[in-house]
Amino acid sequence: xxKRKLGFFPGKGVWAVVLxxxxxxxxxxxxxxxIVLVPVFFVMFYGFALNPSVEQVSLGVVDYAQTSAxxxxxxxxxxxxxxxxxxxxxQEKNLERSLLAGKIKVALVIPPEFDQQLSQGNLAEVQLLxxxxxxxxVGILQGYxxxxxxxxxxxxxxxxxxxxxNLQTTILYNPGLVSSWYFVPGVLxxxxxxISTFAASSTMTAExxxxxxxxxxxxxxxxxxxLLGKLLPLLGIILVMVLIxxxxxxxVFNLPFRGSWLMFMTSTIVYILLTSELGLILGxxxxxxxxxxxxxxxxxxxxxQLSGAxxxxxAMPPLFQGLTLLDPLRYYILV
Length: 335
Hints:
Blueprint: H1 12-27, H2 29-49, E1 57-63, H3 68-77, E2 83-89, H4 92-101, E3 106-110, H5 114-119, E4 127-130, H6 135-156, H7 179-210, H8 213-218, H9 223-252, H10 261-285, H11 289-305, H12 318-323, H13 328-334
Parallel strand pairs: 1-2, 1-3
Antiparallel strand pairs: 3-4
């Protein structure tokens, strides 16, 4: 028997495996729907749902001063759609009841000496009560209100030192602070991880379910040729999914693409091959599709949580910050 020559280019046997895999994939309509349409749905869903901006927050006010300065201060807080005046009363008990009942989320108490303290150049204290049920929303709202109050103080400060510092802040890369510009690329990386690992593991377990896995082992193909024949169809289909999802993101969310398409596509191909290879390994280690699904779910959750897509890596404990260096999704999101 003549020995096979080893080369770096796939031979006819590899393309035969590719053709077989393409036929099996296109026969499975559920798998095609999962790979192509489900990512588009989740990108649209999370792009709209994961919105950290705060709008239409109900505000209750107790203004003991009843002066033009106090009214100007309230007007400054409610100048945008973030805070909306809902309850105005002269008794703190009524304001407390509205806050406990959930009618308002923010309560503002202005003392009687507010105008006098401002005119004398002293520090004017106001009381701000915020409903802390949603901790994430409270942090964003507190930062916004603190910035508004700080701007009001500088505008009304007549001391000679107030003009010594002129702070100008410029926000780069996302000047409009559009939340979807941050969440959609992260969601795309998360979905790409889940789809690649699950699709690859399901194709491998399907070989076992259909009883064709042993037939692949009996073919004259080398192991790397069998793996390559299984990876290439998944690579092509998932790349189509990435292009479709990017197109929808640019149309629906006006998500700009700034950078090199060549670098993006090269990184995407490398990442798809890496995660698909992981899925094939998980498919080999499991006996059926249910086991493969649960195993990929167990693997994907730490990959997502340690990637920095939803939680800043800097906010993690030192041990988990070190573990993020082993997470490939962390580096793909950076691209």
